[in-house]
Amino acid sequence: MVSTALQPQEKGSEEISLWVAHPDLPVLILGLVLALGICWPLVGGGQVFLLDWVIGPHSAILSPGFYGLNGGLASGLPVALVVGLLTHLVGSAATWLPIAVFFPIATVSMGRLVGGRQWARLGAATLFAVNPFVFQRLYVGHIPLLLGYALLPLVVRSMVRAVDNRGVARLTPVLWMALLTGMSPHFAWVCGVLLLAVVLAHRRRLAALGWAAIVGLCFVPTLAYVFLPQSAASLPATVGSYDLSAFQTMGDPQVGLFGNVAGLYGFWRAGPGPTLPKYYVSGWFLLLLAVLVVVAIGAVTALRDVQTTGTTESGGDTRRRGGVRLDRRMVASVVVISAVVGFFLALGSQGPTGPLFRWAYVHVPFFNVMREPEKFSVLLALGYAACFGWGIERWANSFAPGRRIIGVVAVFFVALGLPLAYTPTIFDGLDGQIVTSHLPASWTQAEQITGSRTGDLLFFPWHLYLAFPFAGGRVIANPAPSSFTGEVISGDDLELPALYSESTSSRSAFIQRLIAEGGAGGKFGQQVAPLGVQYVALAKTVDWQSYQWLSRQSDLHLVLDTPSLELWENTAYLGLGHRGGESVVRLSPVAYRIPPGQPGWVSVAVPYQPGWSLNGHPARSTPDGVVSVWAGASGGVLRYRPWTFAWAGDVISLGLVLALALALAIGNARRNRRKQGVRESEPPNSSPA
After folding, report:
1. Is 503 helix (H, G, I), strand (E, B) or coil?
2. Do 122 and 190 belong to one domain?
């Protein structure tokens, strides 16, 4: 009877013990619930097509950037490799899985940074994962940026621990920085701000500055895969000062620029879509003020904290358990400093720091990647969330023991309810604003017809971004390049009011001239045959009727005509190039065999960019934008020389990351063995008689 009576109590003790042993469990559950509530309309078939997140069924695992093509633009190479592989493994689920995993990653990482009681973790995790910045970036499909943002608290945690560490463990932040920059190059500067904040927050600034310099110097070579290909190639787009006005942070008609950025709004794109949460909540700014009150309380409380009350390796409170400590005051100083700096950087070329931002944009290498300055708001959101959690904890601790029940209800309402009330329309696929799409059957038919082609598919209408009926009329990046096998030639102009085009492609300029002529030459197929165009497709959307001249071309043969797509075969197509009756053969994306023949110039249907050469003879561009090279009687192999820089950059970056990861693993194993040896050498505790 006694043992039976004790069973419920023992079971309850086990549950409490499990809760304490796994402090990440509540925030993990929170993240999974958020993912389910937000992403459930995206599950169950079809692709998620967003503005900049378009992954078709035939996405290549190795993008042109892997070979140093596309002007050596390889900044998104790591995430492109992962997404391409994921697409081949799970199909259309690859378009929504990265969105779903964002939420549990964000909640767990923020919970680990904040530490302390569960109310602090839950409040901070909720605000970090659910806010207007996340809403807007999710709508436009900046998923790699969001995944990096989700890991940002762990970067702060790593930096705060590493600055006072010894040996190779001091370089742990390098791996985090390399990981985040592989997701989005903007994190190179975001992490740079965090390094600066650690230096300013540290009690020994000179020593911290030396540590930050070493971390920065070790981090730069991990970007070799970005810098080396560009050193031997020319970018496919020009980035200049006009980008600052085209992508500048937006203000709000009522609260202005500062209020909009403070509210985690300000994304440069005015529309079409989305309908922002603040349009649904008339008193959104009052809710923001309520959030900021809690944030201010948390910041003041944490900055005054004189105890080392951080978290252990597993996330537990160091006041209760042993482990590596995080100084809460240090963490608070870092997130507050970086939030303030992030706020002014998010203003870009506007505001009091605008002149400094413009100077850095023009003169500091690689800083022009921040042409869209509102991305610096990730630091503001990080600071808000952490301080919000500490403010919730401070408030929860203020309730007297006799009012615990009332206090729990109030804390629950504020910790979870306030962030959700501030961004209420994030659920149900952003209130139905993002849904899954299915490519029309005509696209599958076209793929079946063109799948075995040797040449390229030219896709019209000629736009980089356009609306499709199958995507609910939302504007998305052209899905054709990832929806058909082989090479697809499609529009590459931004078509913004302040910035129509950044393309440097002479091939694209040639095609645009032909479009402007409206087929006046009468033999469009013959004109695009040197580009390697074997098929021409026209999707019936937006301004497709302006391309009706295609049906009047004598060398285009209509092979498919449906309500959503027309497809023509180019009867003038003769291959990638020819010489003396023999065809040029594609050996790889960076090598083409030129057959023997009479010495002279040979054109190859490859988009021209500097670096192509044959037997030491550099290639040049034809008027239509493809490669032309002088070939001797024996022919040879036309090669893209910058490929060696791309290969070397990949090897250097991957080698450095793996070497550092191995060194850290060995060092960690040695420390664990030493700790184990110390524990075993200690005499056992004797119990009193």
Report:
1. strand
2. yes
